[in-house]
Amino acid sequence: MTVNATAPARPRRTRGIEAARARQALWLLLPTLIAIALVAGYPLYRTFYFSLFDANLTSPDQRTFIGLDNFWFTTEDGVAVGFLQDPKWWGAVKNTLLFTVVSVFLETVFGMIIALVVNSAFKGRGLLRTAMLVPWAIPTVVSAQMWAYLYNDSFGLIGRGLLGGQAVLANTDTAIWALIAVDVWKTTSFMALLILAGLQSLPGDMYEAADVDGASKWTQFWRLTLPLLRPALLVALVFRSLDALRVFDVMSVMLGNVNAASTSMTGYARQALIDNQLLGMGSAVSVAVFLIIMVIVVIYVTAFRVKFD
Amino acid sequence: MKKAVALFSLSAAILASSHAGAVTVTLACGDVGLELKMCKEGAARWAKKTGNTVKVFESPKLTNDRLGLYQQQLAAKSSDIDVYQLDVVWPGLLAQHFVDLTGKVPASEVNAHFKGIIDANTVNGKLVALPWFTDAGLLYYRTDLLKKYGFKAAPKTWTELALMAKKIQDGERKTNSAFSGFVWQGKNYEGLTCDAMEWLVSFGGGTIVDSTGKITINNAQAAKALDTAASWVKSISPAGVTTYDEEAARGIFQAGNAAFMRNWPYAWALGQGKDSKVAGKIGVAPLPSGGARNAATLGGWQLGVSSYSKNQDAAISLVRYLTSPEEQKIRAIQGTYNPTLPALYKDKDILAKNPFFGSLYSVFTSAVARPSAPTKLKYNQVSQAFSTAVSDVLNGKMKGQQAVAKLATDLARIKGRGW
């Protein structure tokens, strides 16, 4: 009897504890949620809001609602004024995607090689691990300016020395490759660091067993290291791809803001918003950048089943 | 104890007196060549005279970057900067953020400046800023090299310039592989708009958008002007000229690695400096003609007082001091900054230091304005579309005719429902 009486009470009590815990968690999370809403949510909302208006940066108070005209609109005279009708925007999208695909691919390959090297035991490994982070530690604005000097056609080590007076940065078609080189130089070490962290979580005895079974180093890499490294690698890839898609600083410093607008989506957004003072148009471009990045992330996460936990 | 009290009351008295009228005014100065140094010195002279303090805000070098920064400050109604240094094409863009100086500055003081520049600073009857120095594109050349290769005078036409530059370049390359004939501002930014305006007008190709707001760029003379400029790249100008701004061009010329340079007057004083390899060997002439006329783009900077300034009276006093004849004379002598006061072009001290001021007076007074007045708030977009089209021609992506046709379409897009 007594047993029967207490039995149903027990789960009710644990439910109460769980509910209390959930409530507690909510209260503890509340400050964070408010902070996120204020610093991320509100600007995002304002961006979406202004993308539907014809507004000027210098006087945002005088705005008129124009719906999606910032994206696509043709005037009575047949003039296309929406930014999606601007070939320059599509050039920026193309260049950004090219930049992302090539630089992230190269960074992953080189990062993997570097990580494998510094993961093996040898003298001076600690020093090497620190040294490889130097390019990553230099602020992008500084390293970009440094590379701009290297590429200079009249005194640069690369522009004058290696290429004999060619100006690679002069033309956006050649400049994009120069920019990819800079990004690979800078971010490979970051990729290597992420991969190295993944490598160090792999059990050493597994390789001993593989050695006993007579598997070659090559087989070990393809059959053991790579599959086990997959989760870490994918997270690293997502991070780098997102970074590369919203690249801005390298272009802005090395090419100047006008040419940056035809090489990166964010540069195009900045030009519309700041240089041209088109608050509405600039917001619309920012929304497009946001959507493009979101779609790519969703594809990434679902296609590769990336787990962030 | 007595001592301490005395000391305390003394310092309190000093504090009180300095608080009474003295304020701190922030002045945003440019940083091209000697600009920043001279700006600081001029501000310090005013501070000493009035007992106020001046803080100098260092702006970015490139004018486009500067505008972006200022617009953000002004849109946020920030009171951080009291006095802004404004490019001659900005008053139309920024007028609403500046104090109307009409009535606050005596009319005689305003009328002492070139009328054209005062007009450029007047938007809908509001005097947005006072002129500080004016600018016009000039052709710099190496007098020693011209003599060495048997030329008697500076080139009168672009064809002549190309021939001379080629001959000098071929000769000098034998001993100096980094030598080039002609350097200018080819980077895709406002500076390229200025350079290309000069080509356009000198060939009779119009001014992109005419004074009534009609887009006039799509014409054969404009196309010819751009094609001519494109022919210089890699022949008499280095391949990298399409990445040069004012300072990059000056660096090459001043290192003795160029025969001709297109630049603003400020480059003269620096070229005669101690660290210049070409001091004493520089000549200045009007830019060559393309068949129609000699043309120089009107540049120059003004000083305006922000409406959001908390110390407007002190700020206006600073602007009046910096634009005064005494201050403009110092700047003309030390930094070749062209005065905006006609009277100073007859000043003996200035002419002794800058002999070309007198002979090129007409270049400065007849300089061509960029189409900032008819295109109003959209000037910056027009200028960017133009410099991008020019850049495409210089980089060989397009021929002049194709570029001006495409530019006309782009400008129509920018114009949209109207300027």
Automatic annotation (TrEMBL), chain B:
Species: Deinococcus multiflagellatus
PROSITE patterns: PROKAR_LIPOPROTEIN (PS51257)
Signal peptide coordinates: 1-22
Protein family (similarity comment): Belongs to the bacterial solute-binding protein 1 family.
Keyword Iron: no
InterPro entries documented for this protein: Bact_solute-bd_prot1, SBP
Alphabetical UniProt keywords: Signal, Transport
Protein name: ABC transporter substrate-binding protein
Gene3D superfamilies referenced in this protein's UniProt entry, alphabetically: Periplasmic binding protein-like II
Key word Signal present: yes
